[in-house]
């Protein structure tokens, strides 16, 4: 009896479960604080700094990193790169969870979360870029849910429903790319209205295009990163096709990311030139800009290229991490570091530990759900009864 | 209000509102037209 | 059914379609927007301001705001740089030591009530309205609390009730819209003991300001702050020193806020209209390629098969021919043999 209990407790208290459990408990306490004491109780936000890391990280970075869904499904279903087929489902799942968590995070950040549907059902602020972002994110979350659903339906054994959804693949993919183009770029366009607050090196009329292109880089790198982690911890869930295509995916996506990074580097330089901001490169913000441009755009571009030429999968995987850090740095720069650069340091924002705590909590929820789904549903393998196509 | 726009903000609220309705119509229309276009293709 | 109908009507309302569709006035209206005619504003002249904080007290009273941290007759707070917040809609800051001016100068901060408000352009529920009287008003009954207005405002005016857990509002100066409609003066203007604050039609105020500059060219900087900044504001400022020395930004530009995002918004229907065409095209190309590849593969298989068949056939026919030849040879041999035997028999019989 006691042995049995010990065995049960041993199997439940794995290191992952213990860490995740602690984070979740802290997260729930912080949640209670947020919804009883208001934003002032858990954040360092102020009247000068209305947006902190819940927007800078949870929204801007979250949406960018969830771009793998539209990038992969476009590559496979629209551009005919069938050899990456096994990467579609994990990427769609990551995208779906990513967007769901973005919406969850927004519930913490906005003042009256139950009013989030107001822009659609009560009064439409159509001149707002945020209106467009909200509309596209809401629609895209629905699209991702439908795109993800075949895996769940196979798991549940609902053949008929699955067949209907699979028929919609092409339509959903095109719709997903349209919506992603729109809202990924519009997240950058949010800052167009504040030229007097964002440092001129980051403020550019091209900022929507920068955000869209970086989302592609983020999506490609995220697929590589996520497949590395899955292989490490969940390889027993992968079928032969997945294992066989895995390295192909890393090589192919690494190659694509390298070239997209090259193009991004080019248009960033054009941005400096178009605004005639060369003289700002010598300032401290300029040096920081160059760190981002060379350390987190040019360098991953080059390392990806070397990795692809040498077929060095390990290098490509590490470069994916560097590229992802670059995306995070870029979003932080635009939203937090180069934003309000004109203010004295006493008025600047630095996140409260509880803000970081909530963000960690939300990411942890994502990992838990990913693990739950991947260990149950046919994500990393094909369901034997549905080998036809998916 | 006598039907004239006095501010750009007002004007854009109107035109963007129409634009969003048209976008919905366009997306549906494009889908319908595509189906019409390829209906008689043999595979 | 009823919900979707309501929603649809909501959309129609958003677009103004219900009343305005096809009205000819709209057709020609998108050239240049001059703001509401006869709209009101306030002119602040810092050469006439004595820094008495009465405007702060008046504002506090008419807006029924909580009591201040320090009483309004305590003027020591003026030297500290203060900003507006959820409990204070206007503040006056003091700036000392200007060349050629022996007295300190004051700057009054409150919402400038832009002609094209950035907050209104940024709000995705239209909680902000530029009223035809001039004030930019805020409606907390639709506000979601996203704080994008605060990001957008170049003057950093909207403030947020961060300590409200569930019902936070944006708080800012309303230019006393309810009082204005009743024909009263804004609280701060009414209480001002000097001529530092003048209330009136914005157009008239600009004329007054110009006259003052013309009359006292040595006293004023030749610039009316707010005439063109961010497309113009309902509050206007005259100053004896350059505005940037009072921490008022002179680098805001004259572009009205809605124009800053108009370009990005105009790209939305282009993407929505053309992306499906482009993507379907790419899909068709890849599908076609796939199809051709399949056909070529089939053809290759077929021709290989054919070749193999032909070879096999020719082999067979050769074998047949050979067999026939052999057979014929065998027959002729047999015949020959038979004939020879017959001949032999004949010869035997004959002998």
Describe the structure.
- The complex is a heterotrimer of chains A (390), B (43) and C (351).
- With 390 residues, chain A is mainly alpha-helical.
- Chain A has a single domain (19-374), classed as Formate dehydrogenase/DMSO reductase fold (Up-down Bundle), CATH 1.20.1630.
- Chain A contains 15 helices and no strands.
- Chain A has helices at 2-12, 15-37, 39-42, 53-65, 68-78, 88-109, 118-121, 129-156, 159-167, 169-189, 207-234, 240-275, 284-309, 313-337, 353-374.
- Helix content of chain B is 72%, strand content 0%.
- The longest helix of chain B has 31 residues, at 8-38.
- The mean pLDDT of chain B is 87.
- By secondary structure, chain B is mainly alpha-helical.
- Chain C has 351 residues and is mainly alpha-helical.
- In chain C, 45% of the residues lie in helices and 10% in strands.
- Chain C contains ten helices and nine strands.
- Chain C has helices at residues 2-15, 17-20, 24-27, 54-62, 118-122, 148-152, 177-181, 187-191, 202-215, 257-350, and strands spanning 40-45, 91-95, 105-109, 128-130, 136-138, 159-160, 170-171, 197-201, 235-238.
- In chain C, the strands form four sheets. A three-stranded mixed beta sheet of chain C has the order 8-1-9, with helices on one face. In chain C, strands 2-3 form a two-stranded antiparallel ribbon.
- Chain C is rod-shaped, with a radius of gyration of 46 Å.
- Chain C starts with a helix and ends with a helix.
- The chains are: A mainly alpha (390), B mainly alpha (43), C mainly alpha (351).
- At the A-C interface, α2, α3, α5, α7 and α8 of A face α1, α5, α6, β6 and α10 of C.
